Amino acid sequence: MGKEMLLQLRGIIKDFPGTRALKEVNLQVAKGEVHAVIGENGAGKSTLMNIIAGVFPQTAGTIEFEGKEVHFFSPLDAQKLGIGIVHQEISLCPQISVAENIYMGRLPKTKAGMVDYKKMHRECEELFKNFSAQISPKAKVMDLSIAEQQIVEIVRSLSLDCKLIILDEPTSSLTEVETRDLFKVVNHLREQGISVLYISHRLSEVIEICDRVSVYRDGEYVDTQNVCDINTDKMVSMMVGRTLESIYPAKSKHIAEEELLKVSGFSRQGKFEDISFSLRRGEILGFSGLIGAGRSEVARAICGIDPKESGVVEIKGKKVNIRDYKDAISKGLAYITEDRKGDGLFIDYNIKQNISAAALRKVKKGKLLDDRKETKLAEDYVKKIKIKVSSLKQLCSSLSGGNQQKVLFAKWLAVEPEILIIDEPTRGIDVGVRLEIYKILRELCDSGKGVIVISSDLPEVIGLCDRVIIMREGVVSGVVSENEINEEAIMRAASH
């Protein structure tokens, strides 16, 4: 690269009881660069970042920072050298002000020993001058958006004179507009000569915002490439150890002409207008478009979750009146939400309870639950979908994002729907779990079901779907058939 290195890790090993999480891995981060760290869940990314941030020490190997070998025994050690981390889960105190969060543990004092709020607010305003977000130092953190809270975390690191900031899945909870704002912040950090380690599952973001990318697989270092010399296909291949062609299952060659679902003239003021389409038996139908195009709203209205003002739904050639979601389920429809933690799962209940929740009719004995039937149902789907669990009594809150998504799949597959509508099926999960989900969806179609996939992941839409409907500002702006599915056709319809 020709740039001076800020951070260099060589031969890093990390052992936990019974397992080696990192196997002699390397990493070099230059001054003033945005450096992506990618890999599947279990690749060792989090372990590596925790070592850099001083959360725990390495078992073996060396760390150099600004050309000198360093040893971290606590996060404070890393912080003193100028290393900050913004975790995926925000670590601010919501009940106190922005300024108090930024200066927590080092509040400026007056000569009388009182907190000097004027000085604190003045210094805080100075820190925020470089950011476009209008955030008041006096605002309560609980009143800020997730994106604004992330900026507060970044500003807190800058107030400590950080030279390296680690961003862990920074856009996982952000809208597209908020993501754009975050990118402006990252670019500003780069211009100031501050290095950024950017951990993300969203490879398109890596291409857009990062200078270099380091790939890890199964606790081992794979390679580092300049972003300008690589594409998402190559990154995926490096992460999973196989070619992109093997990621998506083969598409159906003979999709039936029978229409499982037909939607005509669906409208709701301010949300969507005159939406009409059909889903054939054995087909994966994609819904693409920019965030806010109305895709999720249409799906929720079809299933009776949200209201519609006009429109007709036909299932297998017969008009149906879907009054609510329970009614939709009884007619063979199931909807898997994009918000698995908020709307999809009973996150503080166990795996068995979640899998059986929508299929209680199958596990009842009279009016009571039959524990044997419920256990058998859960065991069958854990095995079928390959959910990694220690016990059926394990709480869903303790599972990885990928396994939570699999439990959500199991919950709705257990009702045996004819038509499955799934919103953002692989958001925030690693490539390995994606492969398994893609296989499940294709197997559903091969068994004669129909699947609608709503996705903002363009490679996913192109690789998985048999046909694609593109929405823009609440209307259908294009339909792309299988032989014509490509990035240019979809983006043209989404933006014009």
TrEMBL record:
Domain of life: Bacteria
Topology within the bilayer: Peripheral membrane protein
Residue span(s) of domain ABC transporter: 7-243, 255-493
Name the record gives this protein: Ribose ABC transport system, ATP-binding protein RbsA
Example of a GO MF term: ATP binding
GO cellular component: plasma membrane
The keyword Translocase is annotated on this UniProt entry: yes
Subcellular location as annotated: Cell membrane
Keywords linked to the UniProt accession: ATP-binding, Cell membrane, Membrane, Nucleotide-binding, Repeat, Sugar transport, Translocase, Transport
Organism of derivation: Christensenella hongkongensis
SMART domains given in the database record: AAA
CDD domains given in the database record: ABC_Carb_Monos_I, ABC_Carb_Monos_II
One Pfam family named in its UniProt record: ABC_tran
